Amino acid sequence: MTVELRPLGVKCNIQCQYCYQNPQRDAGNVLQLYDLDKMKEAIERESGGFSLFGGEPLLVNERDLEDLWAWGFQKYGRNTIQTNGALINENHIRMFRQYDVSVGISIDGPGELNDVRWAGTLEKTRAATDSTERAIEKLCAEWRPPSLIITLHRANSVAEKLPVLHRWIKKLEDMGIRSVRLHLLEVDDERVREKYALSIEENIYALRSFLGLSYELKKLKFDLFDEMREMLQGRDNKSSCVWHACDPFTTSAVRGVEGNGQASNCGRTNKDGIDFVKASVAGFERYIALYQTPQDDGGCQGCRFFLMCKGQCPGTAIGGDWRNRTEDCEVWKTLYRALEQELLQEGCLPLSLSFRRIELENKMIDHWGKGENLSLLQASSS
Ligand SMILES: C[S@@+](CC[C@H](N)C(=O)[O-])C[C@H]1O[C@@H](n2cnc3c(N)ncnc32)[C@H](O)[C@@H]1O
Ligand code: SF4
Ligand code: SF4
User: Fold this and answer.
1) Are 215 and 126 members of one domain?
2) How many domains does the chain fold into?
3) Cα of 129 from ligand 3 centre, angstroms
4) Is residue 276 part of a domain?
5) Left, alpha or beta for 371 (phi > 0: left; psi -120 to 50: alpha)?
6) Theoretical Cys-Cys bridge with 7: which of 38, 221, 259, 344, CB 3.0 to 4.6 Å?
7) Which residue minimizes the CA distance to atom 8 of ligand 2?
8) Is 181 touching ligand 1 by the criterion CB < 6 Å?
């Protein structure tokens, strides 16, 4: 399992207006110092390698980055980083090549489409976006094409902006980009919702448009659609954390290590600015409760997509309360229905329509009650 290493905690060079880490910044919980030895010891306590994360990991000085990547390369054979890309320079690219660093870049589109990833003034924001776009080109030309994360909001994914985003994605495919992750906007603040969030219908329209685009693209993949198709067929060994009954107090998919070596959780469920210490035992109360709670009361009772969705990421739960199902339920249901139809047309019976659905649901509930998170593959093979 890969560790998310956050040497400087949530410290960042820009101020994305929607960032789920803002509650922590607002509370003043921003680490300024790190200790290389403590971080390495903490990584060694976990199995697998580490991915540099933040905040913005490229705020770490280049000497220390080289130390970490040389160590990571020697110990694990490769490295990864998730960055906003605005600070990438020639020396970083040299280190990416030398220490086999795979790069993930977050950008919400070209030029003004990326304005919500704010850098203080409009001029600085556009300059930062320009740097990120140049970095993507350079990585494609001189190293490995980065994978991208695009977050969907009013500045890039309302109907009139989508054609611009689609054209850009086609251009990225021509440049060599092969993997794009689409994020629905997680809303932690009602002012952010008012200004930037898409409505349910707009989110559905945007995701359907990307699904349509995916049929036109030859090499670039949106992993979201592939994962949802796989989940519908009971294959969950490669899909991401949001479909895996994540416990907000242990977030097993994200084993964070802070600059002082402390273990931490994924920040998405951290709504009050406090990075609580990781719990030692996972609990699955959310999933047992969701299965039995009527949908009108924030649960998932009776939903035929429960096996694949499980109420989705607790960080997106209704009212910011992890016990509820995701507030994006209608978006996911609509997309699952569309992909379900697609599979039926291909002659494949999705798990959502299978006679085994209830039996498998009961099996999962039974194991959650014992503190075990059974995979769909295990459930259907036992
Ligand atoms: C918190 S950033 C940290 C790493 C790095 N600074 C970056 O921008 O990639 C990790 C990812 O979370 C995404 N993100 C932040 N806030 C979000 C939100 N409210 N909803 C959806 N995605 C969000 C960012 O766009 C980015 O892709
Ligand atoms: S809180 Fe959400 S994003 Fe974070 S590990 Fe859990 S499911 Fe994944
Ligand atoms: S689609 Fe909605 S009701 Fe169904 S499992 Fe997901 S969150 Fe729950």
Assistant:
1) yes
2) 2
3) 36
4) no
5) left
6) 259
7) 241
8) no
HSE on the CB side for 218, CA within 13 Å?
4
1: pLDDT confidence band, cut at 50, 70 and 90? low
- The answer to whether residues 223 and 292 belong to one domain is no
Sign of CA dihedral 115, 121, 127, 128: negative
Ligand 2, residues 21, 266, 287, 290: which to mutate, most atoms within 8 A of Cβ? 266
Q: Which atom of ligand 1 is nearest to the CA of 185?
A: 20
H/E run at residue 35 = none
Cα–Cα dist 269/274, whole Å? 10
Q: Which ligand is nearest to the CA of 8?
A: 1
* 12 and 88 fall within a common domain: yes
Do 219 and 357 lie in a common domain? no
- Same-domain pairing of 295 and 355: yes
Is 373 inside any structural domain?
Answer: yes
Last residue of a domain, one of 192, 214, 243: 243
Ligand nearest to the CA of 25: 1
Residue positions counted in the chain = 382
At 280, the pLDDT band (50, 70, 90 cuts) reads confident
> Is any ligand 3 atom within 6 A of the Cβ of residue 306?
yes
**For residues 35-53, average pLDDT:** 93
Helices 223-232 & 329-345 angle (0-180, nearest 10):
70
CA Rg value for the chain: 21
What is the C-alpha separation between 302 and 73, in angstroms, rounded?
48
pLDDT tens, 75-114?
A: 999 999 999 999 999 999 999 999 999 999 999 999 999 9
Domain-embedded: residue 305? yes
- From the CB of 315, is ligand 2 less than 6 Å away? yes
Asked if residue 91 has its Cβ within 6 Å of ligand 3, the reply is no
Domain residues for 341?
Answer: 284-381
CA 243–ligand 3 middle distance (angstroms): 11
Give yes or no: residues 31 and 177 share one domain: yes
Q: Number of C-alpha atoms within 13 angstroms, CB side, residue 239?
A: 25
In whole angstroms, how far apart are CA 28 and each of 18, 39, 59, 84, 275?
Answer: 17, 22, 18, 22, 11
Q: In terms of domains, do 224 and 114 share one?
A: yes
pLDDT digits (tens, 9 = 90+) for 52-69: 999 999 999 999 999 999
CA of 87 from ligand 3 middle (Å) equals 39
